[in-house]
């Protein structure tokens, strides 16, 4: 199993999380599903 990490800047802002939070609910669910798949299977 792999770990997907979202990096923060010096001010502890995570732009990835901010971007995901701005997406429509349906689209965000799809992206989160792909992130979960990456964590389980890696980049195969």
What would you say this structure looks like, in words?
The chain is mostly helical and 44 residues long. The protein has one domain (1-44). Helices cover 57% and strands 0% of the residues. The chain is built from 2 helices and no strands. The protein has helices spanning 15-22, 25-41.
Helix content: 55-70%
Tell me the β content: under 5%
Query: Secondary-structure element sequence?
Result: HH
Structural class: mainly alpha
Q: Could you give the topology of this structure?
A:
Elements: H1 15-22, H2 25-41
Briefly say what this structure is:
The chain is an all-alpha fold and 44 residues long. Helix content is 57%, strand content 0%. It is flat.
Task: List key phrases describing it.
0% strand; 44 residues; mainly alpha
């Amino acid at each position: 199993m792999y770990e997907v990490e979202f990096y923060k800047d010096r001010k502890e802002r995570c732009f990835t999380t901010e971007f995901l939070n701005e997406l429509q609910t349906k689209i965000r669910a799809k992206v989160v599903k792909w992130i979960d798949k990456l964590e389980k299977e890696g980049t195969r």
